[in-house]
Design a protein that fits this description.
The complex is a heterodimer of chains A (304) and B (256). With 304 residues, chain A is α/β, with parallel strands linked by helices. In chain A, 31% of the residues lie in helices and 22% in strands. Chain A has one domain: TIM Barrel. Chain B has helices spanning 76-80, 120-129, 149-153, 194-207, and strands at residues 3-16, 19-25, 38-42, 53-56, 59-61, 66-72, 89-96, 107-113, 133-140, 157-162, 169-170, 187-191, 210-214, 230-233, 236-239, 246-248. The chains are: A alpha/beta (304), B mainly beta (256). Bound molecules: flavin-adenine dinucleotide, flavin mononucleotide and FE2/S2 (inorganic) cluster.
């Protein structure tokens, strides 16, 4: 029996496999396809203080080995989440982690304060890296002072595990990671999507209504992996890795590069059962390699 | 309940140079489904095709355990899906989306263009079973693109318009005399290119009757998780894959 438990802040996750925010709805959307209780964590769709309609259609474009999205944080607001969605999903025996967003520091604080009160919510993922909103979002995550300021403000009002989700759209991701670690983050998750665009040559117009959007999927995996490896060596708090993980081999690469846990995003769209397959693959790998605790894999990249 | 199931390629019926009926077969039983439902197919061996592709369900055979799809080639995925070999595996997520409503309808006009006629076979059958008087109105560029008419004739009257006048009346579907002669339909169902559906919905509004349109927005997940496929409605953005693909056109903002 391989011990699959991993620790992130005060959380003990039953396995390292979680689902990335915005790609797994509120979990329920996948309940027909899999037993959600098997997941290590579900990072649910990004929340804001108030209802947001998101960006106009078209919001997506397929690319070679990936996709662009420009959803723009469509959600019904944190109050609606707490009173209508949370009661429906809280019984799942997995860690459900809300993804917190804001256009201002005050909005991040407002959303966090409300979630802090909810029993059963043991952690939040602070999204300072959404490329699809005009104000706030990624703007906080691409400058070190603002990333630190928002992390500090949220840390002051949140007693539980605080995960900060980093943007890859920066010159040096380790600098931001160190900054948020200094401000009291319990873990970092990376990466969010890469700012990108697509053009329809027939119409000579951008494909997305917002011109630019966020690139996810296997196209970003090698860059995401490099960033996880760099950040792992720069900070002491745990790293949650993601970006183009499609199978167990990809997941193992992220763990070897330094991830304590991982998130699966775009892959869920192609195979709604992919998380279970990745879990099985992780177990087989550990068995083959005689690893009794999966946490022993983290950062075990050998020298060349 | 939605499910993911492996099917095997079982056969093609090519209808013209760019349109085929694809039949897939499974060893298990095929789930129950309603007219308007669609499926997300994973296309095997298709370089550059990353996501699944959504297609309306043309037909289902619960005895033979088959599903069939009416597919028009528009790009790399639909082209590759036309090159399967016997035994090739196709993973299918289905049944997805809502369905057309038939309650209260007595005389229905089904207006389709291009691959938009796909959901009309199951819909026509259901309407007929409910004793509804069914008329199909099919619009195409030219005669070769007017397909499935034999199937539709078993279920009701078939009217045709072609832009080049090679079959039926000349012009666009909305110019067909069915809309001007004494018009006694109490419901319109439409599926096809957006401009066609909008024009049809406008006529329905003028006539004061209900119109249901099946939308074909681009989709990533098809199961309600990603919020990529939304359409604007009077009640805010709704997911075409989950609250749709069928909408009463009164609800759609594009009509107003
Ligand atoms: C609910 C639903 C039901 C559908 N039912 C059918 C059906 O029964 N038969 C059928 O032939 N097609 C149907 N479609 C459309 C079908 O999904 C697309 O034609 C297909 O995904 C194109 O894939 P491709 O790889 O060949 O095209 P790509 O190479 O991806 O794209 C080629 C061109 O087609 C356009 N395109 C791609 N996807 C769509 C889309 N979803 N809608 C409109 N244009 C698109 C692109 O903008 C591009 O210009 C349906 C779509 C939806 C959402
Ligand atoms: C459609 C879509 C919506 C997303 N929405 C959010 C979101 O609300 N909050 C967030 O932090 N990340 C969001 N993301 C980013 C993912 O959580 C993840 O960081 C990214 O997709 C990279 O992982 P992947 O390549 O495995 O998908 C979204 C991604 C996609 C594709
Ligand atoms: S395609 Fe993902 S929500 Fe509709």
């Amino acid at each position: 029996m391989v011990d699959l438990n991993v620790h992130i802040g005060d959380l003990q996750l039953k396995n390292p496999v979680g689902t990335a925010s915005g790609t797994f709805g509120f979990g329920e959307e996948y309940a027909d396809f899999m037993d959600l209780n098997k997941l290590g964590a579900i990072y649910v769709k990004g929340l804001t203080a108030k209802h947001r309609e998101g960006n106009p259609y078209p919001r997506m474009a397929e690319t070679s080995s990936g996709m662009l999205n420009a959803v723009g944080l469509q959600n019904k607001g944190v109050d609606y989440f707490i009173s209508n969605i949370w009661p429906r999903i809280k019984h799942y025996d997995t860690e459900i982690i809300p993804n917190v967003n804001g256009s201002t520091v005050e909005e991040y604080i407002e959303v966090t304060e409300k979630l802090n009160e909810v029993e059963g919510i043991n952690a939040i993922e602070l999204n300072i890296s959404c490329p699809n909103v005009k104000e706030g979002g990624m703007a906080f995550g691409v400058s070190c002072p603002s990333a630190m300021a928002v992390t500090e403000a949220v840390r002051n009002v949140f007693d539980k595990t605080l995960i900060v989700k980093l943007s890859p759209n920066v010159t040096d991701i380790t600098e931001i990671a160190k900054g948020v670690e200094d401000m009291g983050a319990d873990a970092v998750s990376l990466v969010n999507t890469f700012l990108a665009m697509a053009i329809d040559v027939k119409t000579r117009r951008p494909v997305l209504s917002t011109v630019t959007g966020g690139l996810s999927g296997p196209a970003i995996k090698p860059i995401a992996l490099r960033m996880v490896w760099q950040v792992y060596h720069a900070i002491k708090i745990p790293v949650i890795g993601m970006g183009g993980i499609m199978n167990a081999t990809d997941a193992i690469e992220f763990m070897l590069a330094g991830a304590t846990a991982i998130q699966i995003g775009t892959a869920n769209f192609i195979d709604p059962q992919v998380t279970l397959k990745i879990m099985d693959g992780l177990v087989s790998y550990c068995e083959e390699q005689n690893i009794s605790k999966i946490s022993d894999l983290t950062g075990q990249l050998r020298n060349i | 309940m939605k499910q993911i199931q492996d099917f095997k390629f079982s056969g093609y019926k090519w209808l013209n140079y760019s349109t085929y009926i694809l039949t897939l077969k499974t060893d298990e039983s095929v789930a129950g489904l309603e007219p308007g439902n669609f499926a997300e197919l994973q296309i095997p061996d298709a370089p550059g095709v990353f996501l699944r592709r959504p297609f309306s369900i043309l037909d289902v055979d619960h005895k033979k355990n088959t599903l069939s799809f009416y597919i028009k080639i528009v790009g790399k995925g639909t082209r590759q899906l036309g090159k399967l070999k016997l035994g090739d595996k196709v993973s299918v997520i289905y049944p997805l989306g809502n369905s057309f409503t038939v309650n209260g309808t007595q005389k229905a006009l089904l207006v389709g263009g291009g691959s938009g006629v796909a959901p009309f076979l199951l819909l026509g059958r259901k309407l007929k079973k409910h004793g509804v008087d069914v008329t199909f109105l099919i619009g195409a560029r030219t005669k070769e693109d007017v397909l499935l008419t034999e199937e539709f004739e078993k279920l009701g009257k078939v009217l045709v318009t072609t832009e080049d006048g090679t079959m039926g009346q000349t012009g666009l579907v909305t110019q067909h005399s069915a809309f001007t002669d004494d018009f006694t339909f109490d419901k319109i169902y439409t599926c096809g290119p957006d401009p066609m559906m909008k024009a049809v919905a406008r006529i329905a509004k003028e006539k004061g009757i209900d119109c249901e349109a099946s939308l074909e927005n681009m989709m990533a997940c098809g199961i309600g998780a990603c919020l990529c496929c939304v359409t604007e409605t009077i009640h805010g953005n709704k997911r075409v894959c989950t609250e749709g693909p069928v909408f009463n056109t009164k609800e759609l903002v594009w009509l107003i």
